[in-house]
Amino acid sequence: MRMNSIKPAPGAKQARHRVGRGIGSGWGKTAGLGHKGQRARAGGYHKVGFEGGQMPLHRRLPKRGFVSMMRDTYSEVRLSSLERMKAEEIDLATLKAEGVVPGRTLVAKVILSGKLTRKIVLKSVKASKGAQAAIEAAGGKYEAPPAKAEAPKKAEKPEKAERAEKAEKAEKPEKPEKPQA
Question: Which one of 61, 64, 92, 97 is at 20 to 30 Å from 78 when CA atoms are compared?
Fold first, then answer.
């Protein structure tokens, strides 16, 4: 048997239902849509979820919870997952390559869950204090990711007196009055 010789069992594959193809088929003329009305016209019927003017279900139910903006980019990794990995040196690229975290992950953090018995080196991946202790207890090493550079501080606002002086200078001089004739 080859892939190109496989066919469905006899009677399993039925012909497509073709409407509007003559009176003899039983589905001619109106093609099963009936006579006139919105449902018989081209262009569909009504929008999805429309309930004839009644408040639709998706609006009757309360909103609940929220969707985290970080859900696609942040992942948690258990110590038990690190135990199953083959690599000795583990970083974000290694976690992605072995399928421990999704490919779109930008930040991963190792948490204390499960046991770690082998020696590993964790580089440029965040880890909880408990996970760090467990890695070091197993004879491994934890190298923290580099800290982000802090943004420069904004200049302090000038005092009220200085602001008042600037405001006075910014005012336009008064126009001289025109002599009356």
Answer: 64
Q: Tell me the domain boundaries of the chain.
A: 74-143
- What's the topology of domain 74-143? Ribosomal Protein L15; Chain: K; domain 2 (3.100.10)
Long-range contacts of 95-101 (CB under 8 A, 24+ apart): 95/125, 101/75, 101/77
For residues 92 and 123, give the distance between their C-alpha atoms in angstroms, rounded to a whole number.
8
Residue 84 CB partners (closer than 8 Å, separation 6+): none
Characterize the bridge pairing of strands 121-123 and 141-143: parallel
d(CA 104, CA 163): 49
- Alpha-carbon Rg for the chain, nearest whole angstrom, is 36
The per-residue pLDDT for range 59-110, each reduced to its tens digit, is: 999 999 998 888 889 999 999 999 999 999 999 999 999 999 999 999 999 9
**How far is Cα 137 from Cα 117, in angstroms, rounded to an integer?**
9
